[in-house]
Design goal:
This is Cytochrome c oxidase polypeptide II. By secondary structure, the protein is α+β, with helices and mostly antiparallel strands. The protein has a domain of 108 residues: OmpA-like domain (60s Ribosomal Protein L30, Chain: A), CATH 3.30.1330. It has 5 helices and 6 strands. Strands 3-6-4-5 form a 4-stranded mixed beta sheet. Strands 1-2 form a two-stranded antiparallel sheet. Strand 1 and strand 2 form a beta hairpin.
Amino acid sequence: MDNNDGEQRAALGIVWAIVGVVVVAMLLLAGYFGVTAGKGADKPAATVAAPATAASGVAAGAETAVVGVPAVVKILFETGKSEVPASAATDLGPVEMYLKANPAATAAVSGFHDASGNADVNAEVSKDRAKAVRAVLVAAGVEEARVTLDKPQVSLAGDDAGARRVEVTVHQ
């Protein structure tokens, strides 16, 4: 009888662990979509969802400006290069899907550079990076007129990688 009780307790422990994981996952999803604490009660469910991760270039833990879309999507570039990294299409997926589902929405694309070196060259590289990111969205089916380019900016980031970036922000 004791052996059977131990097996039952182990099975019950596993069941409760699974239930706990499911509850935590549901709470995280609810928080991500903004439906907790009265948020989102008057809004339809988000049309897109992508978790924000530092590895994908999306601002980790960023609040959402538009439901289901990270507040800022950051695409990081190599030094002196304007070729879009392979991860850009994935990183821009939530923006692309939101823009396709919401014809009135637009996206602003901003290129950044650091203060070192020739300011004119840096500004041109930043502009080329922003154009390359816009081209990814346009190639995915977003109308070019809905993706605006902002003037290149000097980065206030403390590291080189943060300075070599393009930020994409969605506006309703």
